[in-house]
Amino acid sequence: MNDVASEDQGSGLTPIKASGYRVKLIARGEVAQRTVALYFARPAGFSFKAGQFIDLTLLDPLETDSEGNTRAFTLAGAPSEEHLMVVTRLRDTAFKRELKEMPLETVVNIEGPFGNLTLPDAAVRPMVFLAGGIGITPFRSMLVQAAMEHLPHRLVLFYSNRHPEDAPFLHELQDLQRKISSYTLVATMTQMEESDGSWTGETGYLEHAMLTRHLQGIESPLYYIVGPPAMVKDLRAMLKNAGVRQADIRTEEFVGY
Ligand SMILES: Cc1cc2nc3c(=O)[nH]c(=O)nc-3n(C[C@H](O)[C@H](O)[C@H](O)COP(=O)(O)OP(=O)(O)OC[C@H]3O[C@@H](n4cnc5c(N)ncnc54)[C@H](O)[C@@H]3O)c2cc1C
């Protein structure tokens, strides 16, 4: 990684950790209700695996709060995509207000990539992904990469949201089924009564009966669970009760939701 901290000595900027990359915000857009994608120019030499995350630090925010100026964000773009993309829910915190308002060209610091919630190199076992809301980000990265590289992994994504308007990348994730023959999407909506749209797919929370219905013929999968801590805890317990070995369950918790 580049050592950039020395550039800041005496500049009056908020202190940052000792290493990382300075990256410029080049675009921002809504990808679902209250959910934005931010695109950063990719620094030379920065590579990552689909599913990894970065620590993003605001360098000179207009406001800050007790949680500070750094948050972890999955790189929701695939490694083969041009820019670095992070996607987040816009909660009413100083950090999120800054992400929403900061002008294009604003420079932030990123560190990473970190994490090993990635696709195994060998496609030996089927993979079952369980995502709640914004927990879709690592799976979006993996699936786009799987499509680009024609990866042979058997992939089943269960994706839970309140309603379709709230579900980032829903259409893209549906379309990817045409590009990846070994991939199936099972999207479920938990609060369709709040939606103006229609939905013919699954409804209700992810639970054992729903998984069983859609996992006929899927032998001995690895499970990845990503979402808010309460959801991750519940789904892990559900799998454990269903007899899944702890070693076959990997999780990532998105705190703050
Ligand atoms: C590996 C990883 C990947 C992530 N990827 C994404 C992503 O792709 N998109 C996304 O939107 N979010 C992601 N997150 C979550 C993200 O880092 C923020 O925590 C989240 O967006 C909430 O930020 P906030 O500013 O809205 O709330 P905050 O101001 O950060 O906090 C909200 C609440 O969470 C509590 N909290 C904050 N940090 C912690 C902590 N470490 N442990 C326990 N409680 C805590 C606070 O005390 C507060 O009560 C990821 C987190 C991790 C660990």
Into how many domains do the coordinates divide?
2
- The SS-based structural class is alpha/beta
CATH homologous superfamily assignment of the largest domain: Nucleotide-binding domain of ferredoxin-NADP reductase (FNR) module
Main β-sheet: number of strands, strand sense, barrel status?
6 strands, antiparallel
Q: Tell me which oligomeric state these chains represent.
A: single chain
User: What shape does the CA trace take?
Assistant: globular
Named CATH architecture of the largest domain: 3-Layer(aba) Sandwich
Q: Any idea what the radius of gyration is?
A: 19 Å
Provide the CATH topology of the largest domain. Answer: Rossmann fold
Helix content: 10-25%
Low-confidence stretches: 1-16
User: What is the class of the largest domain in the CATH system?
Assistant: Alpha Beta
Structural summary, described in words:
The protein has 257 residues and is an alpha/beta fold. It folds into two domains: 5-113, Translation factors (Elongation Factor Tu (Ef-tu), domain 3); 127-253, Nucleotide-binding domain of ferredoxin-NADP reductase (FNR) module (Rossmann fold). Helix content is 20%, strand content 30%. The chain contains five helices and twelve strands. Strand 11, helix 5 (229-241) and strand 12 (249-253) form a beta-alpha-beta unit. The model is unreliable at 1-16 (pLDDT under 50).
